[in-house]
Specification:
GMP Synthetase, Chain A, domain 3; single chain; alpha+beta; 9 helices; 26% helix; 4 domains; five-stranded antiparallel sheet; elongated
Length: 319
């Protein structure tokens, strides 16, 4: 099956369409039909063959290559989008709605506008849609987005000094977890690992798999190891340098050594520790003999003298 990948704005998701026998070059502008009507996009993936199983839904064909009129109409729609956003912001203030207008997008025909907004909770915007549609005299659709999509729509610069990844080249926002920061040894300070959106930075996922692979080759924190300077415990790791920081037991000093010069001691299992412990009999033999309550008791010989058990002799009869 022949497909062509179309993207509608920078950093947005790529959608598959049927090239309809036409030949397209990357970044060439085309007109396609979507659920919102005719839209102008540009080729992100040149026409190519893919398996039919990779395509989940029937593909819509590309209408045509973009002409000069299509490009001029798109530029006109961009000025109308700014007006729609300003009108929406005024109505939000008038109706006292807890929401923030972010962006507006017209389709190529100009008969439909999609407005994106952010809010901390669900908002009843039915009155807003009615009044906004009356002012713009077109069909209005409102869509609520989260913090990460808000940063993607608005754009900006990250702490690295470069444009936000989500607004420049990321097509999809993958989930990011705090475990990725731990894996890379980053400080767990939310101010240092959070982006403009207030969520964990998307760039934490870029090198996570490499760090995970490098950490597998290093001893774990707290592991007992043997070095040329003696036995010690791992108190730090440096995956990029493939080295570990070891605290020596004898001196208490901490030294950084290459992982190849460190030997991990086999952990002592509980059953092994019990097997190596001295037996009770061996312990008794190593200690001096002591009288025990269980020792056999020897009876003392009977003492000489009048006893109850001694034989009784009768005196001779008197004459």
């Amino acid at each position: 099956m022949n497909i062509v990948g179309i993207r509608f704005r920078k950093g947005s998701k790529v959608y598959y369409f049927d090239p309809a026998g036409l030949d397209f070059a990357v970044n060439e502008k085309v007109v396609v039909e979507t659920a919102r009507g005719l839209e102008l996009g540009y080729v992100a993936i040149a026409p190519k063959q893919v398996l039919a199983e990779e395509v989940k839904e029937p593909l819509k064909p590309v209408i045509r290559k973009a002409e000069a009129d299509d490009i001029k109409r798109t530029q006109d729609m961009e000025s109308r989008e700014k007006e729609a956003l300003a009108e929406g912001a005024q109505l939000v203030e008038k109706l006292h709605l807890p929401m923030k207008m972010l962006s507006a997008e017209y389709n190529l025909d100009g008969n439909r506008v999609t407005v994106y907004f952010s809010a901390e909770e669900r908002v009843d915007f039915r009155e807003l849609v009615r009044e906004l549609a009356g002012r713009l005299r077109t069909r209005v659709e409102l869509r609520q987005v989260g913090p990460r999509d808000e940063a993607k729509l608005i754009g900006g610069y990250g702490r690295c000094g470069r444009p936000l990844c989500c607004g420049s080249f990321l097509s999809e926002l993958a989930p990011v977890s705090i475990k990725m920061a731990k894996e890379q040894g980053l400080p767990l300070n939310p101010m240092k690992i959070s982006g403009c959106c207030g969520r964990l930075m998307c760039c934490l996922i870029y090198e996570n798999s490499q760090y995970r692979e490098m950490n597998r080759k290093l001893p774990r924190m707290g592991a007992r190891v043997t070095t040329a300077s003696g036995a010690g415990k791992v108190v730090g790791t440096n995956p990029l340098m493939e080295s570990v920081l070891v605290q020596i037991d004898e001196s208490g000093a901490s030294i950084e050594l290459p992982a190849a010069e460190v030997t991990v001691q086999a952990p002592v299992r509980p059953e092994q520790a019990r097997a190596e412990a001295p037996a009770p009999s061996e312990t008794a033999e190593s200690q001096p003999e002591r009288p025990s309550d269980e020792a056999p008791h020897e009876e003392a010989p009977p003492a000489e003298g009048p006893h109850d058990e001694a034989p009784h002799e009768e005196p001779p009869p008197a004459e």
